[in-house]
Amino acid sequence: MAESPYLIALALIEQGGSRALPLAGRSLKADEAVADQPTQAAHGLALELLLRVWQRSDNGPLKRACGVESLLLVELAMERLPEDLPALKAAWLNSGDTEAFRAGLRAMAGRAWTMSIAKFQPVTLTPWTV
Asked: For the segment 63-122, what is each residue's pLDDT rounded down to a tens digit?
């Protein structure tokens, strides 16, 4: 992984028969990049992303597009952000090919987790494998 990876939270959702993939991201500090899990950064990104998703609900009901794998956290090299991630996002939005999206994201990600939460518990990061 690059020296200063970028952390991205993604939500794969459906709304009104259309797919959407909102995301939030930030660069990781050196100590966060070497930690087992970027927990503090992940919690902030999860909140930001889910607030964006919640705001979308004004336009109609939302549905997770990929079940438990609909809310992801991935670590990417900065070089992947300007071209690779937008191309992968556009391909999924146009085709809905979840397997191709997973494979493409996995190929470019350093580490990845699914995000979930249980009642009275903090956000849980579970290592994500394709």
From this structure: 999 999 999 999 998 888 888 999 999 999 999 999 999 999 999 988 899 999 889 988
Closest by CA to 74, choosing from 123, 27, 112, is 112
**Euclidean distance between the first and final Cα of the chain, in Å?**
18
Q: Say how many C-beta atoms besides its own lie within 10 A of residue 118's C-beta.
A: 8
pTM of the predicted model over 0.85: yes
Q: Hey, what amino acid is at 62?
A: L
CA nearest neighbour of 24 among 2, 51, 3: 51
Instruction: Say how many CA atoms lie within 13 Å of 29 toward its Cβ.
Output: 6
* Residues facing residue 124 across a β-bridge: 116
Strands 18-20, 23-27: pairing is unpaired
As a whole number of Å, the CA-based R_g of the chain is 14
Backbone phi, psi, residue 113, to 5°: -140, 155
DSSP, res 20: E
